[in-house]
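Give me the fold.
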Amino acid sequence: MADESGSQRRSSNETIPRPRIQTLSDLIFGLALSIGAITLLSERPSSITALAISLVGFGWAFLILAIVWVRYTRIMSVLPVETGRMVGANMLLLFLVSIEPYLYNLIPASYVSLPGQLNSEITTALYAIDMGSIFLIIAYFTHELTVEEKRLIPRELLRSYRLQRNSTILTAALFLLSISPVFWSSTFLGVPLRMILWMSTFLVAFVRREVERHRTS
């Protein structure tokens, strides 16, 4: 009995309360979303075109992180995250989110060719690795919700979450596939295919919503 109670106390001491994990995640996502806006303050666009390019770039970074945050928040509202692999996966996800603004802001600077500086092919590949890894972890969390034996969500929602899981895996695959050098050297209308693959992730989200809407109608 004493050993059992001691084991329970150790297990209790090893857990991390959900509110603390949520507080940390909200802080990191908030900082990541705001760093892009702070970066804009250091820029001095010389024309309307330059201003538009800066705002479009900021809009992309903000929107993609906002999508991740919305999915993450919805999943974490029902997924047990206090112990074991979930804590590790959460910490890795939050680390990847925290470095996203840094990697993203390396991209425009890398277009100016300077000795000893990473070129744009490398910086965009690093950003793609980061985003692909983020979406893979979100897909893993979503998969955990779809395990029927755990009964974390109502049975009638299983198909919807499985569709979300599959679309998230596809999104991660597009980012990771874009790492291949061929998608940087090849262009369409002057835009590297790597970036076109990034933008196609929004098409994946749109198709998922349409399929889900069709199923429920």
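Residues 2-216 form one domain.
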